């Protein structure tokens, strides 16, 4: 329960002082506020591309009607904006599905290095197009652990995609995994998978909030890269479902390392 402190001026007859009203904000009220903020954010995120598209439709009907070059350019922009809305809706659906499954433990045994090699292969063309090389380490041997394959693919796709988007200047992304005999955060053995880039890095003050829905360090930059601001929130919920941990380390101007620590068995905690 958080306390909200309101300092209000006293009525005129008690002039010269201030009164402190201590009010309890229940967890329910906080949850309700978060829900309202989320709806406001979603509406804003959807309205931005929609406003742009409406504007271009008007221009195409009016001033640009007979200008073929302008028409092509505007149609390209409208296609991009529609793509943005589509990505946002996909991510919202993913997030909602992941949240609703969060309490159900995954039961499949999967080969994690194989899964990671598959994700790296899928992302390689995108990395190459951004002028990056993806280097892997520790993904040669089979290692079985419990997990939801589709969701873990999504986790590592999101992390590698971010490393490509925000790490392009570093030229190199490293993806690897290693065993941890005793991980204090998990109270047992586990596997740590890291995705590391040498890009722009993240200022320390942002790190604690990075997995919040729609939290971005630079909204303009994220949008320009096609980001929805939901990628890391999705990652966080999937990792929670696997009883794992997400560790974020970064230094401004030097790069970032995102580590997903997964327990070897799901019998604990
Ligand atoms: P987005 O769709 O904006 O990329 P994410 O939830 O995936 O949303 O990430 C949230 C924010 O965290 C990003 O907008 C970006 O500012 C920051 N971020 C994520 N990954 C990295 C990275 N590898 N390097 C620098 N900044 C990053």
Put the structure in a nutshell.
This protein has helices at 27-61, 68-100, 112-129, 149-167, 219-224, 231-241, and strands spanning 2-9, 18-25, 109-111, 133-137, 144-146, 172-183, 188-197, 245-251, 255-263. By secondary structure, it is an alpha+beta fold. The strands form three sheets. The chain has a five-stranded mixed sheet with strand order 4-6-7-9-8, with helices on one face. It has a two-stranded antiparallel sheet with strand order 1-2.
β-sheet strand percentage: 15-25%
Which H/E pattern describes the elements?
A: EEHHEHEEHEEHHEE
**Which percent bin holds the helix content?**
40-55%
Shape: globular
The side-by-side strand order for the widest beta sheet comes to 4-6-7-9-8
**Beta strands, count:** 9
Can you give the mean pLDDT? Answer: 90
Number of helical elements? 6
Q: Note the main sheet.
A: 5 strands, mixed
Q: Which spans of ≥5 residues are poorly predicted at pLDDT below 50?
A: none
Instruction: Quickly give the structural class.
Output: alpha+beta
The molecules bound to the chains, other than polymers, are: adenosine-5'-diphosphate
GO biological process, one term: cellular response to phosphate starvation
Keywords: ATP-binding, Cell membrane, Kinase, Membrane, Nucleotide-binding, Phosphoprotein, Transferase, Two-component regulatory system
GO molecular function: ATP binding; phosphoprotein phosphatase activity; phosphorelay sensor kinase activity
Subcellular location: Cell membrane
